Amino acid sequence: MIRVFKKEKYNxxxxxxxxxxxxxxxxxxGLANYREAHTPYAWDEYILFSPIHxxxxxxxxxxxxxxxxxxxxxxxxxxxxxxxxxDTYRIFNRYKKxxxxxxxxxxWDISENSNTITEYIxxxxxxxxxxxxxxETWLLGKYITPxxxxxxxxxxxxxxxxxxxxxxxLHSSAASLSKVKHLTLxxxxxxxxxxxxxxxxxxxxxxxxxxxxxxxxxxGIVSPPFELEKTLFGKSNLQVELIAPxxxxxxxxxxxxxxxxxxxxxxxxxxxxxxxxxxGGESWSExxxxxxxxxxxxxxxxxxxxxxxxxxxxxxGYFQLTLTQDVSMLSNYFIILLIALIFPVALWISVSSxxxxxxxxxxxxPYHTE
Length: 370
Hints:
370 residues; 2 domains
């Protein structure tokens, strides 16, 4: 039947246009403009007809398109939601619609405004339940891009500009989020297993330990020689611990690790300071008399230390150095773990923000708070 409610003011896809969607050839036979009762929300719906496949529909709201086909499959209800083929479609909207404008052929009474419409989404898919007094209809739809619409109907005109996030629109990386989660879990487990292996295989061998008296003439100290053994990777780390019994004072040392055979040098500085006292009847303290640092990738070989210590006048006169080869380093584990998590966490935040925007116009949003 043909019904014209108002003079035609717009028509993005002219009636009579022919196009192909999902390999099915259609002709546009009708156009209706609907509005959600008692709200300003309005959308267009195009009626498509195929002699082989029957009627289908294209709906566009704020530039976002969905392609619908009628389905005989009845979803199973799960509270407010429904389940179809094992996928849960969450309730997104429920309303009564009013026809503001119509032109062309419709397979139902287009003037009927008493039906209750319920939308359930599982992006990029959507189920619409159209329930009237005497009958009900289930429609299964999916998101379709404006580019696909233009290509399907060979349109040369501009389509409505998209606003916000469509109810069934997919985040550009949403499909890969699940894969990223699984990959991230695999990477985290791999890093953890490797850390456990390295921790248990670490030699943590003390290769040098000695106490030195600080020369009064502030000259340097040359340590006795010591040896770093070969490890599985050829090189290893070396932890250097310095202890000095300072109190309300400080001590620091300029140290060079020298390879006796190659002459290769590794320069570093270490220092300690410790202060304490009583102020306002309360004791306080800051600093400590112990410090350590770890040198990485030190080749095996024979070494000695050149040490140039420094203390304030009247300061402590001795200190102790301990060198431990091939120590387990949790700091590296946490740094690598942090780097591995940066991308998946950023992706999750992006997708979560996208989902929050999607549900902003829904009365059934899981993001609503009381």
